[in-house]
Every structure is written in structure tokens, then in C-alpha cells.
Amino acid sequence: MDMTNKQYQDYVNSKAKPSPIWKNMLWAFCTGGAICTLGQGLLEGYRAMGLEEEMAGCAVSVTLIFAAALATGLGVFDRLAKHAGAGTLVPITGFANSVAAPALEFKSEGLVTGVGAKMFIIAGPVLVYGIGASVIYGLVLRLFFSG
Predict the structure, then answer these.
(1) CA–CA separation, 57 and 46 (whole Å)
(2) Within the chain, how many helices (H) and strands (E) appear?
(3) Do the domain assignments include residue 131?
């Protein structure tokens, strides 16, 4: 079967189900908002317990990362993400899931070659480029904008 790119795209479009984009965006917005609201509630709770702003912020990050990793391990995160989409992936919970999920998936291959080698398979490139970009940004600021 010899098709042009346009014919192939038309064929794919005729077979694909339309995506409910507005519904997906609403779910992502509401879920991401709920996670951020939970984070703000945790922040206020930690501050009410006597932690300073910076320490309370750290405690919120650790709590959300732990909760997301635990939810990933229990299989809850994937079910939520199936319906919420990017709403679960954008906040810090998405990062925790991207580290925990591959570690769980490859645990049968052992601690070193499975968990250790695969844990950052998704998050690793994000860390590398994020850290690299921040170093370059810092150098540019230092070289061109230092007083």
C-alpha cells in the first residue's frame, strides 16, 4: 500500500477517536489546582505548628513527594493520572511519580541494574537539562550583569 503523507494523515484522522480536549483541560486544571491547594493547606498547617516559612516550604515539598511516591507504589497515582492528565504531572507530584514508577517497574532486575539504573530514566534528562540551563543562566548573569 503506497500512500502520501496527506493520505496517511487523512486515514489516521478517520480512524482516531476525537479527543475531549475541553473535558481533559478542565480535569487537569481542577486536579492540579487541588494538589496546589493541598500544598497550600500543608504549608499553613506546618506554619501553625511553629515552622518558619522556609522550613514549612521544605516540609510541604517532602510531604508531597512522599505522598506521590506512596500513591505510585500503591497504584493510585496512575489511576488518578489517567483521568486528570497533566494536572498530576505538572506539580512536584509528577516528578516524584517519574522517579518512583520506573524504580518499581524494574525492581525485579535487582537493586543496582534495575532500581538504581532505571530510577531516573524519565526524570534524568529533565534534571540534566534543568541543571545545565541553570548553570549557563548563572554564568550569563555573573559575566554580563554583575555589579
Answers:
(1) 8
(2) 8, 0
(3) no
